[in-house]
Design brief:
By secondary structure, the protein is of the alpha+beta class. The protein contains eleven helices and 18 strands. Strands 9, 11, 13, 14, 17 and 18 form a six-stranded mixed beta sheet that branches. α3 packs across α7. The longest helix is centred in the first third of the chain and has 22 residues.
Length: 339
């Protein structure tokens, strides 16, 4: 029995090592994307018919899944107001399991009703719909529940799972994707949603995914080792959607906040999807009174490996934002003391 368990664990781990979209560099997703976008007025009243329309002219599972995923990202709007209301209610009931469960049941019914009628939802609805469509074409897909961190997340109150995404099995390996964050950007102030597809969340690198996704079930890290603790997850830097377009890996720093002495340096280390010119690497610094752009103190680029350092010559507290090719990638904080 023990040998069977060990074998199962080995096979499960072997089924996702290095699983990311680069496994399918030989696949052209143009046709799958074109099909997905050609059915942008389809409703959700007949999911089997929708799944058939999106996949019948495609020959591989990865293309079929791509068409389903791409359709969801292009047609389902993120209801940020609904997300905030759910968070408030769950925080309010967090110490009363009966009331929390009752709210979850009530909210789930409201959530799916709004998804079906208005094609609006939150992360749970996105993940559910991707799985439902994948199931209809016999592609193994799971909903992953856990914690997600974005720039507006208050880590002081992040004590309940707040995000959901998908794991999909293709060619015997498991892959991760986040249709909610891929679909577009909600405005935190107006709560309006803008469709803006981000391909970086499709079959993403698990090591990059782990910076701002923390699954409840350890299986869905899809990491062989170096699985972060929840405390390490909360302490990690803030990375933005552009990071998934630009970075293969975020290697260092592993923490968002740094305490250093005047004239010391902070080191940054990344693996890029494509090489970049040094002049396209910029920092934006904010000390609370002023904001200014700065060139890193040193930059080293070796093919797709980017290393940079920045020296802080004055004491103070700094927000440090990394920009690559004009896109905001990540944010860190640095407290510089005189001694």
């Amino acid at each position: 029995m023990q040998k069977k368990s060990i074998l199962y664990v080995f096979c499960f781990f072997a089924g996702y090592l290095n699983a990311q979209v680069s496994d399918f560099d030989h696949i052209d997703f143009t046709k799958a994307d074109r099909i997905a976008l050609s059915y942008n007025k389809e409703r959700l009243t007949n999911l089997p018919e929708l799944a058939y329309k999106l996949t019948t002219d495609l020959t591989t599972d990865v293309e079929r899944f791509r068409a389903l995923y791409r359709w969801v990202c292009a047609n389902i709007a993120n209801d940020y107001g609904l997300y905030l209301k759910n968070n408030r209610k769950r925080q309010y009931f967090k110490n009363d399991s009966l009331k929390l469960n009752a709210w979850n049941d009530k909210f789930r019914r409201r959530l799916f009703k709004k998804l079906l009628k208005k094609k609006q939802t939150i992360c749970t609805g996105y993940a559910y719909l991707v799985k439902a469509l994948a199931d209809l074409v016999n592609i193994e897909c799971e909903i992953v529940h856990g914690y997600g961190r974005v720039s507006t997340t208050n880590i002081e109150t992040l004590n309940l799972p707040n995000h959901s995404w998908n794991a999909v099995k293709l060619n015997g390996k498991w892959y991760l994707c986040d249709p909610t964050w891929a679909s577009g950007i909600p405005n935190p102030k107006t709560k309006n949603f803008v469709f803006l597809y981000n391909d970086g969340f499709f079959l993403a690198n698990p090591k990059l995914f782990a910076v701002n996704h923390f699954p409840i079930d350890n299986r869905w890290w899809l990491l062989e080792d170096n699985i972060p603790s929840f405390e390490e997850f909360l302490a990690a830097p803030v990375i933005y959607g552009n990071a998934y377009k630009t970075l293969e890996l975020h290697n260092a720093p592993e923490q968002m906040h740094h305490n250093i002495k005047k004239n010391e340096k902070v080191a940054f280390n990344y693996k890029l999807k494509k090489s970049i010119k040094a002049e396209k690497v910029k920092l934006l610094l904010d000390n609370g009174d002023d904001t200014w752009r700065a060139n890193p103190t040193s930059i080293s680029i070796d093919n797709t490996f980017l290393k940079l350092e920045h020296q802080f010559k004055r004491k103070g507290f700094y927000d440090v934002h990394l920009y690559l090719n004009g896109d905001l990638i990540s944010t860190y904080t640095v407290e510089v003391k005189a001694h």
